[in-house]
C-alpha cells in the first residue's frame, strides 16, 4: 500500500491493482476509510468527522493527481507523492 501523502496524523494511500471505482484509503489512528476520487463519496469505513473533513478538502484540491496515481498503481507502478494539506 503505497503512501502518497501524510498530514495532521492522516495517512493517504492507494493499493496496487485495486478494484474500481478509483479511490483512496485514509488512515487516522486505528480507523480507516475508502473514498471515491471523483465524487468524494465514502465507500467504506469511518474516521472522525474532523479528520474526514481534512481528507475531503485535500482530495478536492488534488483530484487530477489522485487519478494519475490511481492509474499508476493499477499498472503496478509506484504512485507519486502528493503535497500534504497545510
What would you say this structure looks like, in words?
The protein has 86 residues and is an alpha+beta fold. It has one domain. It has two helices and five strands; from the N terminus they run E-E-E-E-E-H-H. The chain has helices spanning 49-61, 63-74; strands at 3-7, 10-13, 23-28, 31-36, 42-45. A five-stranded antiparallel β-sheet has the order 1-2-3-4-5. The protein is globular, with a radius of gyration of 11 Å.
Task: Provide keyphrases for this structure.
5 strands, 86 residues, alpha+beta, 2 helices
Indicate the topology.
Blueprint: E1 3-7, E2 10-13, E3 23-28, E4 31-36, E5 42-45, H1 49-61, H2 63-74
Structural class: alpha+beta
Span of the ends, CA to CA? 23 Å
The global form is globular
Number of strands: 5
Mean residue pLDDT = 95
- SSE pattern: EEEEEHH
For the record, the count of structural domains works out to 1
Contiguous helical run count: 2
Strand order of the largest sheet: 1-2-3-4-5
Largest sheet: 5 strands, antiparallel
Share of β-strand residues: 25-35%
Low-confidence spans: none
Q: What is the C-alpha radius of gyration, as a whole number of Å? A: 11 Å
Estimate the helix proportion, in percent.
25-40%
